[in-house]
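Moderator note: this is an archived Q&A kept for reference. The question asked for a predicted structure of one protein chain; the sequence and the answer are reproduced below.
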Amino acid sequence: MDAKRVQGIGFAALLGAAAGAALAGHRRPRAVLGGALAGAGVLAAVDAAARARQKPDEVPAVWSRIAASGALAAPVGWAAGKAGASSLAVGVAAGTVAGAMGVRPHKVALGPVVGLAVGAAMRRRPAAQVAAATAVTFRTVSQLVFREPQIQLLAGSATAEQLPFVVPLEARTRYVGTGYVRDLAAATGGTYQEAAADVGIVASLDALAGPDFDPGGVDPLVREFYEHTTRFALDIEPRWRAWVRPGYLLYRTLVARPLGQANVPMNLRQAQRGVLSRIDTISGADGAVHTRGWIRSFAHSGEPIYVGIYTTYRHGDRGYVSVGFPLPQANFTATLAPRGRAGGGLRLTSKGHDGQTGHYLSYVDAVSRNLTTLGVPGFAEELDVYVQDGELRADHAFSVFGLPFLTLGYRISRKVP
């Protein structure tokens, strides 16, 4: 048995001991000790069985994860009970937290309902038992009702060549920011150009040709926007759904702004203060551009909105656009397939079952450059660029598990010389 597996089983035993002690915490010390020993043995056995069946690049079996959830909840419930919380309140709180951790809106709504039901049914039982039962019940019901996985482990240690749909570029510091491409050029070599003139987010739409997309059918204005993006100015109108606003406000404050990445305006008033847009490039010794970073920031503060690295690649007879958003030692990539749109427009979509399109979160090993990659199948987006009444427009729609939560509307105009 390898050291990593032994460590995992040892951690499970410690977690089980804490859970067992908490579940028996309302009884005498001897019973608490017995509960700790029993909990350690049971959870260690569950973890060992799950690891024995686990295949490479596969997450542990769901039943072992459900058992661990119950074990984690028990000590927290015990502490809440000691603080004076009723069993009903502990059940509702445990369900709410479990639902929130599920991320999916349906799970967020289900959590408090399960917690209320379990808390009411076990209102005379100790808080630790209620918390553990709520966590286990919620995870079990969720597994039965929501069969589509939220994340999928695609690779434990793969090369960039094995995962062409991932942009393998990470941030080497905790802050991404508008200087990311400059820092990348300094670290990897190449000729850096800030705010490159007359360049696009793609070199040519012809690279995207395939059975579902004929570049020849694209309106010349749409083609010009993609191949010469810096010729245009963009006005953005964010349209957030009401249900996601509180969560996004918290995310923006605690994550996006300190990170310097994925900091979308909260409302039209913020967007109307002005948005700066530029494309930074890195070229090789032959002068050809191999890295294009589209950087957008707030005009009044210089604060980053997002930093996206745009690439194209071909798989079989199809072309794809991959946009990588660098994160500290990681990357979030959106890989989109092109589709023709009536009137000469172009749609880029992450929806598909071709093994390429989708969203991927990858950890980049600093030494080997290998990738540990998770697929995020519940997240989807579509970008429509089209001509309306002689003017360029774009709608960028996002959804999670089929629920729309944000649409970014763009008015695109040619810059005044």
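Archived answer notes: The mean pLDDT is 90.
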